[in-house]
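Progress report, Aim 2. The chain analyzed during this reporting quarter is listed below.
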Amino acid sequence: MTETKINEFLSAFENKTFEGYSVYDAFNSPFLKEIGKLEIKLINVIITQLFKRTPFNIRGLFGVKKSINPKALGLILKANLILLKPQDELRSLYELILSKRSNELDNLSWGYNWDYYTLRGGTFPKDFPNAIVTYFIGDALLDYYKIYPSAELKKNLLSIRKYFLEDINRTERGNGICFSYSSVDHKEIYNASALISRYLFRMSEIFGTNDKEILIKSTNYLKNAQNADGSWYYGYASNQKWVDSFHTQYILEYFECLSEGFIHEMDLKDLIDKGRTYYLTEFYYDNVCNYYAKRKYPINIHSIANRVIYLIHNKQTNQATEIVDWTFNNLYNFKNHCFYFEKNKYYVNKNVYHRWNQSWMYLALSLYKSNVVNEV
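Predicted structure tokens for the chain:
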């Protein structure tokens, strides 16, 4: 039964276009865009959060149209490689990804397809490149290169590396450095620095790039940032002292991707053990993954997808199956074959977002199908 539901979702997703709504796309509205131009940050954040938290989709009322989220394309490419899609399909997706690059900088980089407003994170105009979108595309392109290597793709991967090393700002603190979110801010957001570090480490493994010195410094920063209980806050600033599941996972997966020699040299074993224990225990309630530590609600589809991915990579398939079953039973629309955004204590937020909901679950269930369903 689970296999049937997964196949129906994967098939439905693949038969749709790449366009969709996003959590933070309120200012793609032609009406609200004029308000955004006033640059009253608090007003812009309130509007963004209203669109996010309203439990049904109000975007059509404001003229927000579906569009392509470049980050979603990276997740889909990664999933399609897992599913062994034909080479011509992969090439077509690769070319679409390149067509969505940002034109702000010389080095290859990507941004979100909407104006982005937050109080605690960054604020960026539409299409302005950032570390997160660029990482998830770069990570998928590294997977693509391992199966279909080419001089062109290698050149593009090296250009992404240059974006991280030459364009992204850094903050030095003690014996470490933290990569920033973009080329125009100096925010110390831990998961962003971990993702950049992971990309650089993967590049060194594949191409022998010599980034060990900077990796030692970025690793030292994240090592020093770990809390006594094994967790990491979202960031360094006083208004970023919260712990959530999938950003914790990003940091943990960076440390877990490192070679045994590097882990030994940097004395990271205890850190990894504490981080893994914290993630596995604090983000698991009643057969599903919660968003915030020590709180059952909200139960967010992004956290669920990342939990499934992490569990499959760590061969904990029984818990992964429990979570997949819970998600189909609680956050799935069987008529339209799509996942909802979030379950709260008293209601379900039924917004359907192409990247946050669908693309993450497409990747998670592709991995689950490949490693669990097909192995039975």
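The first strand starts at residue 19 and ends at 20. The mean pLDDT is 96. These observations will guide the mutagenesis work planned for the next reporting period.
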